[in-house]
């Protein structure tokens, strides 16, 4: 479903991503792990069309993302959800309006929005927080809003950028369980980047290890932890 073919991203003389090849299957939870500076975020930004690779191709659902016009890029981005380490909520808007905002941006009608937002709130377990502002929420609740917003326009792919790195272990586990439920019930493909093996162990099916811009190995997570 996601085919990353010989992708390189260079900033001046830094090869942030260096000739990466990865195939991610539909319905998979795929982890990318590595130390800080390994190139994980840069690769994720290429997947989310926030950056264009210097060389190589990214094909999602048979569409070559590296060959799109600006207008097509905007449309394709709506098919990709993304959540962030520091949530990126709009602090002046209530939970409800944070979620409604991405539906509005995608041109949804008032009726559709009024139907969809409560469904999303229920899915992430925040029905009783609709009228709160982000500052009134815990970290885990903020990330749940982030997840609801990312899923608003029914993406096929959810990208997670260190989504639990700002959370304590208990909250991390509950957010990971929510992501697992979303993967299982909605069939959404999840690509996550992390520097923590524990995150990979808890929910990923496969993991790629990045170092100095390169993917140095790809493993099946079940096999990785089955052998002591
Ligand atoms: P990670 O997410 O694994 O920490 P990054 O993708 O953030 O790694 O960074 C990979 C390398 O690319 C680092 O050496 C970083 O300094 C460099 N880099 C990332 N973004 C930029 C940028 N916008 N301009 C210049 N260098 C960058
Ligand atoms: P920053 O410049 O701080 O990294 P961004 O440009 O990533 O911030 O995001 C700006 C705003 O747009 C954020 O408030 C975030 O909520 C929203 N946003 C950006 N990308 C996405 C996305 N893929 N899905 C949903 N919201 C997004």
Layout of SSEs?
Layout: E1 2-11, E2 14-24, E3 29-33, H1 40-47, E4 55-60, E5 63-64, H2 70-77, E6 80-84, H3 95-105, H4 110-123, H5 139-151, E7 157-161, H6 169-186, E8 189-194, H7 197-203, E9 206-211, E10 214-220, H8 221-226
Residues 48, 82, 88, 90, 102, 149-150 line the site of one adenosine-5'-diphosphate.
Based on the model shown, name its key terms:
228 residues, alpha/beta, six-stranded mixed sheet, four-stranded antiparallel sheet, 8 helices, 10 strands, globular, binds adenosine-5'-diphosphate, Methionine ABC transporter ATP-binding protein
Summarize the structure.
With 228 residues, the chain is an alpha/beta fold.
Describe the structure.
With 228 residues, the protein is of the alpha/beta class. Helices cover 37% and strands 28% of the residues. The chain contains 8 helices and 10 strands. The chain has helices spanning 40-47, 70-77, 95-105, 110-123, 139-151, 169-186, 197-203, 221-226; strands at residues 2-11, 14-24, 29-33, 55-60, 63-64, 80-84, 157-161, 189-194, 206-211, 214-220. A 6-stranded mixed β-sheet has the order 6-7-8-3-9-10, sandwiched between helices. A hairpin with a 2-residue loop joins strand 9 (206-211) and strand 10 (214-220). Helix 3 (95-105) crosses helix 4, helix 4 (110-123) packs across helix 5 (139-151) and helix 5 runs parallel beside helix 6. The longest helix is centred in the C-terminal third of the chain and has 18 residues, at 169-186. The mean pLDDT is 95. Residues 48, 82, 88, 90, 102, 149-150 line the site of one adenosine-5'-diphosphate.
